[in-house]
Amino acid sequence: MKQKRHAKILKIIRENEVKTQEQLTDELCAAGFEVTQATVSRDIKELGLVKVSSADGGYCYALSNTQGESPKRIEMFAKAVVSLDCALHTVVVRTFSGMAPAVAATLDGMFSKEFLGSVAGDDTILIIMQDEKKAKEMTKRLAKLFHGEETV
User: What is the pTM for the complete model shown?
Assistant: First the structure.
């Protein structure tokens, strides 16, 4: 349940300017999650969310792009990643159901400058690389990052 809630939180903050924990709590409740402000506060800390400037001059929650928080998220999501593979210039990351959006958001924060783009479904992430060589390199890096092993 926690993993699905984390995935939903990341989806909510990507699609909306969430300015307060109360607003995030309300959004989660509307989506069917029974949460308290204390739970949301812990989730924000675990996901490494930060407040950034919003369009209206205020602040809203966003996924941190700093490397300092990434190891915590990687450790949290390592068990969610089922497999990694590559096909031509595409890296395919399989996760447990409901986890792909959260894992993809973390990878986007860490590596988005290194790939052309990513798409996340419910349990699959496609990462588009510039070429086949870079796809193989990224697959190896992710395997080492998530599982401490090398593939391909």
Answer: 0.57
